[in-house]
Amino acid sequence: MATRAGKASRLGEFALIESVFAPLAKDYPLAFGLKDDAAFIRPRAGRDLVVTKDVLVAGVHFFADDPADLVARKALRVNLSDLAAKGAKPIGYLLGAVLPKTLDLKWLKRFAKGLAEDQAEFDISLIGGDTVSTPGPLTLSITAFGDVPRGAGLRRTGAREGDDLYVSGTIGDAALGLAVQTGDARCPKKALREVLLDRYQVPQPRLSLGAGLLKHASACLDVSDGLAADAGHICETSGLGAEIALGDIPFSDAARFMIDRSPGLLNRLLTGGDDYELLFTAAPGRARSIRVLSRRTGVPVTHIGKMVAGSDVRVLTGSGRTIAIERAGYTHF
Ligand code: ADP
Ligand code: MG
What we know:
The chain is built from 11 helices and 11 strands. With 333 residues, it is α+β, with helices and mostly antiparallel strands.
C-alpha cells in the first residue's frame, strides 16, 4: 500500500494537470500548455476533421492491476485504430480522467509515460481534457481528432456486390490473450502466451495502411467487436452479404497452436473482440494495388472473401459447409 503522500489526489487538480498532463501537450502550441479553457485545432484547407471517442472502465475494459503504461497505450490506440479505419492522419486528443481518490501518483505517472511513448510513435499530442475524482472505478475516456482529404474518408458503407473482402494482420489473438489472462484458456508455451497477451494489451493501429486505403477501399472498419460481427456491420450498412473462407482467415502461429489443442476455441477467435485490425472491401481490379500497399506499409493484408447479394455473413469451410457463428460479438447492453 502506498502512503497517503503517494496518492494522486493529494496534489490537487491543477498541480496534477500541470505536472502530469501538461508535458504531454508541449509540442502542440494551440493547447497553450493546458492553461486555457480550451485548445484550438486549425483545420487544414480541403480536409475533413475526423473525430472519435472511446471510454475504458477498470474491471470492464482493462484489469485494475494491469501495468499503467499499457492501459494508457491501449486507451490511445483504440482511438487511433478508429482514425486508421477512416484513413485519417492523427492530430490530437482529449483525455477524460475519472480517478478514484485512492489512485497512486506513481500509477498516473506511469500512465503518462505510456501516453508519451505512443504520442511519439504515432505523431499525436494531448491537447486538453478534464480531471475529476470518483467513488467508482478508474475510468478513462479519450476523444481523438484526425483529418482526411475532404469527402474522401473511408466509411463502413460503400461495399459493392463482387468486391473482395480483406483483413490486415491476424485475427483472434486478442480474444485468446484475454482468455489466457482470465484463466479461461491455457497456453502452456510461454513465448506464445506472451504474444497473445501483448496482442490483447497493446493493439497496433493500422494508420499507414488506412491512409493508403483512401484510394482503394470501398468500405472499411476496424475489428473491435470480432471479425464476424464487424463483417456484419459492413454488410448491414452496405446492404449486402459476405462469404468468408475459413481457410483464408489469417491466424498467428500462437492462435493456430491454441486451436489445434482445443478446436472449440475457433468460434471465440471469430467472435472475440479487440483485434483492431482493418477489415475492408475493394473492387477486384484493386487487388494489385492492395498488395503493393501492403508491402510498402509493411502491414500484412489477406484476402478472406467476397461481398455477395443477401444480408448474412457466411463462413465457409474447405468442403463448402457453412459454419454457424454462435455469438456475434460483444455488446455492453
Ligand atoms: P475548465 O474548468 O475551464 O473546464 P479545467 O480546469 O477543467 O477547465 O481544465 C483546465 C485545462 O486543463 C484545460 O485546458 C483542460 O483541457 C486541461 N485538462 C484538464 N484535465 C486534463 C486532462 N486529464 N488531460 C489533458 N488536459 C486536461
Ligand atoms: Mg473554463
